[in-house]
Design brief:
About 0% of the residues lie in helices and about 65% in strands. The chain has strands spanning about 10, 15-20, 25-30, 35-40, 45-60, 65-70, 70-75, 80-95. A hairpin with a 4-residue loop joins strand 2 (about 15-20) and strand 3. It is globular. The mean pLDDT is about 95.
Protein backbone atom coordinates (compact mmCIF):
# COMPACT_ATOMS: atom_id res chain seq x y z
CA UNK A 1 0.00 0.00 0.00
CA UNK A 2 1.36 3.42 -0.97
CA UNK A 3 1.70 6.05 1.77
CA UNK A 4 -0.60 9.03 1.18
CA UNK A 5 1.33 11.33 3.52
CA UNK A 6 4.23 13.45 2.21
CA UNK A 7 7.76 13.52 3.59
CA UNK A 8 8.28 16.95 5.14
CA UNK A 9 11.30 18.72 6.60
CA UNK A 10 10.84 18.75 10.38
CA UNK A 11 14.08 20.65 11.08
CA UNK A 12 17.56 20.94 9.62
CA UNK A 13 18.75 17.38 8.97
CA UNK A 14 15.43 15.79 9.96
CA UNK A 15 12.47 14.67 7.85
CA UNK A 16 9.10 13.41 9.04
CA UNK A 17 6.44 11.22 7.44
CA UNK A 18 3.15 10.12 8.95
CA UNK A 19 2.88 6.36 8.37
CA UNK A 20 -0.65 5.80 9.70
CA UNK A 21 -3.19 7.55 11.88
CA UNK A 22 -6.65 7.72 13.29
CA UNK A 23 -8.16 9.95 15.95
CA UNK A 24 -6.67 7.96 18.84
CA UNK A 25 -3.22 7.03 17.50
CA UNK A 26 -0.55 8.15 15.03
CA UNK A 27 2.64 6.43 13.82
CA UNK A 28 5.38 8.69 12.39
CA UNK A 29 8.82 8.08 10.88
CA UNK A 30 11.57 10.60 11.61
CA UNK A 31 14.77 10.26 9.53
CA UNK A 32 17.87 11.99 10.89
CA UNK A 33 21.17 12.90 9.32
CA UNK A 34 24.15 12.76 11.70
CA UNK A 35 23.98 15.91 13.82
CA UNK A 36 20.25 16.42 13.19
CA UNK A 37 18.34 17.57 16.24
CA UNK A 38 14.90 17.24 17.68
CA UNK A 39 14.80 20.46 19.73
CA UNK A 40 13.63 20.28 23.34
CA UNK A 41 9.83 20.48 23.41
CA UNK A 42 6.77 19.00 25.09
CA UNK A 43 3.23 18.14 24.07
CA UNK A 44 0.08 16.66 25.58
CA UNK A 45 0.53 13.37 23.74
CA UNK A 46 2.02 10.23 25.24
CA UNK A 47 4.83 9.18 22.89
CA UNK A 48 6.48 5.83 22.31
CA UNK A 49 9.78 5.82 20.42
CA UNK A 50 11.34 2.85 18.63
CA UNK A 51 14.87 3.29 17.28
CA UNK A 52 14.77 1.59 13.89
CA UNK A 53 18.41 2.46 13.12
CA UNK A 54 21.22 4.82 14.11
CA UNK A 55 22.32 6.16 17.47
CA UNK A 56 20.79 9.06 19.40
CA UNK A 57 21.38 11.03 22.60
CA UNK A 58 18.02 11.79 24.24
CA UNK A 59 17.01 14.16 26.98
CA UNK A 60 13.73 13.30 28.70
CA UNK A 61 12.99 15.52 31.67
CA UNK A 62 16.20 15.60 33.72
CA UNK A 63 17.49 12.30 32.28
CA UNK A 64 20.02 11.96 29.43
CA UNK A 65 20.70 8.63 27.74
CA UNK A 66 21.89 7.09 24.49
CA UNK A 67 19.83 4.68 22.39
CA UNK A 68 20.52 2.70 19.22
CA UNK A 69 18.80 0.35 16.80
CA UNK A 70 16.26 -1.89 18.52
CA UNK A 71 15.82 0.27 21.64
CA UNK A 72 12.45 1.71 22.63
CA UNK A 73 11.01 3.86 25.40
CA UNK A 74 7.94 5.90 26.37
CA UNK A 75 7.78 9.65 26.96
CA UNK A 76 4.93 10.67 29.28
CA UNK A 77 2.45 13.37 28.33
CA UNK A 78 3.82 16.86 29.05
CA UNK A 79 7.44 15.72 29.60
CA UNK A 80 10.08 17.97 27.99
CA UNK A 81 12.26 15.95 25.59
CA UNK A 82 14.57 16.18 22.60
CA UNK A 83 17.44 14.40 20.89
CA UNK A 84 20.63 14.72 18.87
CA UNK A 85 21.49 12.17 16.20
CA UNK A 86 24.96 10.67 16.77
CA UNK A 87 24.81 8.24 13.81
CA UNK A 88 22.37 8.63 10.90
CA UNK A 89 19.15 6.81 11.65
CA UNK A 90 15.40 6.57 11.91
CA UNK A 91 12.97 6.82 14.81
CA UNK A 92 9.43 5.41 14.66
CA UNK A 93 7.22 7.35 17.05
CA UNK A 94 3.71 6.53 18.19
CA UNK A 95 1.52 9.31 19.58
CA UNK A 96 -1.73 9.03 21.49
CA UNK A 97 -3.92 10.81 20.77
CA UNK A 98 -3.05 11.71 17.17
CA UNK A 99 -0.79 14.75 16.54
CA UNK A 100 -3.17 16.86 14.46
CA UNK A 101 -0.37 19.42 13.94
CA UNK A 102 1.39 16.79 11.76
CA UNK A 103 -1.52 16.52 9.32
Amino acid sequence: MQNKYPIVEASDGVTRQVLSENKELMVVSFCFEKGGEGALHNHRHTQSTFVRSGRFKFTVGSNEFEVSGGDSFVIPSGETHGCVCLEEGELIDGFTPRRDDFL
